[in-house]
Amino acid sequence: MTKQELKTKTNGVILDVLITEKGSALSTQNRYLLEVARDARKPQIAVEAEKAFGVHVLAVRTANMKGGLRYVRGTRKAVQEPTWKKAIVTVKAGERIELA
């Protein structure tokens, strides 16, 4: 499922499934990292994750990730990265969210 399909399927609540080293380690504990809309609340995230991925969500934890300066290589430009929100979704044992 592409980013755009996921965004439209979840009414703009879930933006992307994050595939990182930490996310891969969490997936062994039935937890998955999702990038979500900044105004999304935990109950909304749980409902949309259940609908989009067909899993039973047990818990949702959220964190606001502060954006910062990123320097463009080879230039003197600094670009401000936007602030975003991530959610750690715990699913029922034996269920999976397909990452790709």
Can you describe what's shown?
The protein is globular. It contains 3 helices and 6 strands; from the N terminus they run αβαβαββββ. The strands form 2 sheets. Strands 1-2-6-3 form a 4-stranded antiparallel sheet. A two-stranded antiparallel sheet has the order 4-5. The model has no long low-confidence stretch (mean pLDDT 93). Helices cover 26% and strands 33% of the residues. With 100 residues, the chain is of the alpha+beta class.
How many alpha or pi helices?
3
**What is the helical fraction, as a range of percent?**
25-40%
Task: Indicate the structural class.
Answer: alpha+beta
Strand content: 25-35%
Essential attributes:
alpha+beta, 3 helices, 33% strand, globular
Topology:
Layout: H1 3-9, E1 14-17, H2 21-27, E2 31-36, H3 42-53, E3 57-65, E4 69-71, E5 78-80, E6 84-91
Short description:
This protein is an alpha+beta fold and 100 residues long. The protein has helices at residues 3-9, 21-27, 42-53; strands at residues 14-17, 31-36, 57-65, 69-71, 78-80, 84-91. The chain starts with a helix and ends in a 9-residue tail after the last strand.
